[in-house]
Amino acid sequence: MSLSIAIIGAGLGGLLLARTLHRHGIPAAIYDAEASAEMRAQGGLLDIHPPTGQAALREAGLFEPFRSLIRPGHDARRITDRNGTVLFDWAGSSLGTRPEVDRGELRTMLIASLPEGTIRWGRKAIGVLTALGCRPEVHFADGSSITAQIVVGADGAWSRVRRSLSTAEPAYTGTCFIEIGSAGGQLLSRESAEVIGRGTLMAVAPGQGILAHHNADDTLSGYVAINTPLELVAAVDTAGPAAMRALVARRFEHWAPALTTLVLDNMSDPLLRPIYALPTTHRWERVPGVTLIGDAAHLMSPFAGEGANLAMFDGAELALQIATHPADIEGALTAYEKALFPRSAEVARRSAENLQRFFGPDAPRSTVDLFARLLR
């Protein structure tokens, strides 16, 4: 039996879904708004967890290629207070149970694992029409449309596919990230490299923090975190990089000079990244032929470290249900969602709790307690 499957979004979840379907002999088409795979930077490191991300990569037949991307020791963790006092220092491991990989390299590996022509670049979905007895119809910004037996929304936080299933919209969590990083060709100073250590530095206090990673090429990537009304920081962002630097300098003026220098020396092009989340118990009634994976289904803060992991796991699980029940599409989608909802709700709850452990009133002690449990 031949199935027509349209996956909206070429992120990690959508790619993993298509790859796993391909492994089972089921073709799928991916539609993505970007003009090409290189259109947008895909930087940053991900720690890939055994029961979710690693399990999905095994199911996709990509575990060995994934292992070649691992950056040994880059899972190191250091926690300090605002004075720079080291409260927790874990040196990492050669491979580790939750190894770090570069997001862009992982995405490139997934794209390369698909048959040529699987991804249709430059196709921005703007909505999905559903009607009883009819196949779902995806409409694109260029005026074109397609129908498919199965439409999967893998289109992220502001998913257009989700609107055909749910009225839920992401809500601001109260925490805003400001993305920082080394300017082109700029290496970390010796002092800043020593402050961060080999892996990730988490300097936290109630209401704010610095999350910085020492990359393999001696550059920095990371975020400044501030608990603030979104309107305030958005207004500063509109005023430009100098205003954003001034805001950060004010908010961190009583922190250790080594920490403020680390941030301000790597703020040539700060980017505002407000943290949004869907309700922790987000779910929807079955709509024939349509479902969601990844952030489209369960957007949450990054503080469970499961966003990319769950997206890939969702993709693998959905592919397995479709491959197992190719003649019963609704049965496959129902079984997938029955497992998805409690799984994602538990992780979303944990993510919300961990956000408070990072920047709530008990930080940094609550952050230390969290990692002492995770890494013991």
From TrEMBL:
Cellular-component GO terms for this entry: cytoplasm
Cited InterPro entries: FAD-bd, FAD/NAD-bd_sf, TetX_monooxygenase
Cofactor: FAD
Amino acids binding NADPH: R40
One Pfam family matching this protein: FAD_binding_3
NADP among keywords: yes
Main enzyme class: oxidoreductase
Keywords: Cytoplasm, FAD, Flavoprotein, Monooxygenase, NADP, Nucleotide-binding, Oxidoreductase
One GO term of the biological process aspect: response to antibiotic
Molecular function terms from GO: FAD binding; monooxygenase activity
Record flagged with keyword Oxidoreductase: yes
Top-rank taxon: Bacteria
Its EC number(s): 1.14.13.-
Residues annotated to bind FAD: D47, R103, D295
Catalysed reactions, semicolon-separated: a tetracycline + NADPH + O2 + H(+) = an 11a-hydroxytetracycline + NADP(+) + H2O
Annotated ranges, domain FAD-binding: 4-168, 289-345
Comment field on protein domains: Consists of an N-terminal FAD-binding domain with a Rossman fold and a C-terminal substrate-binding domain.
Function noted in UniProt: An FAD-requiring monooxygenase active on some tetracycline antibiotic derivatives, which leads to their inactivation. Hydroxylates carbon 11a of tetracycline and some analogs.
HAMAP family: TetX_monooxygenase (MF_00845)
PANTHER family in the record: FAD DEPENDENT OXIDOREDUCTASE DOMAIN-CONTAINING PROTEIN, MONOOXYGENASE ASQM-RELATED
Family of the protein in this entry: Belongs to the aromatic-ring hydroxylase family. TetX subfamily.
Complex formation: Monomer.
The name this protein goes by in its record: Flavin-dependent monooxygenase
Naturally occurring in which organism (per UniProt): Mycolicibacterium fluoranthenivorans
